[in-house]
Design a protein that fits this description.
The protein is an alpha+beta fold. The chain is about 45% helix and about 20% strand. The chain has a five-stranded mixed β-barrel with strand order 1-2-3-5-4. Strand 1 (about 5-10) and strand 2 (about 15-20) form a beta hairpin. It is globular, with a radius of gyration of 18 Å. The model is unreliable at about 145-150 (pLDDT under 50).
Length: about 210
Amino acid sequence: MIAQIEGKLVQLDSDKALVQVGQICYEVLVPGYLASLLGSRIGQDIILSTMEYYEGTPGGGNLVPQMVGFVSTGEKDFFKRYTSVKGIGIKKGLKSLALPIATVAAAVEGGDEKTLTALPGIGKRLAQHIIAELKGKLTGFAAGAEPAQAKEETAFAGFQIEALEILIAWGEKRNEAAELINMACRKHPNIKSAEELVPLVYRIKQGIEV
């Protein structure tokens, strides 16, 4: 079992990273929020806390080993609890974690279905199931386990989180999108929906509205 990997980040996609250690490159699956965080680290050395699993079915005789990476051991522990919920496997769990883990944990602890249903692949019923299964068990993850830059996002209202995920899905970097959302909401405090907020963000970005 490889519990940690340290090496140069040589390639990054929305769901995986290539980490070079000596002459060997390891493919590491990463959750969406981590891919955003690593966007500026290509070519630099990184350290990921890792876990391994086998993809496929034993009966099919085609098991493929996969490695999953996280910022810290604590976030890896969160993922193990998160994917213990029925209906959330490894791949669905990785895809759904588009927000920092502390934000997701805080949403579970607060019974915030709206934030959870803003995550990719999480519908209302599954969000309710997650809350029922994990509420009261994630307090430690919600209280400061997130990277510092995620603190601002933790304070976002539901419509701002929804707008943030739309902007990221459309190719914007998380940090820049969060900054633009803050700027737009300061200029237009009456906006209360992602439908209004996203076009305004692009008008500000394009200099149409200053």
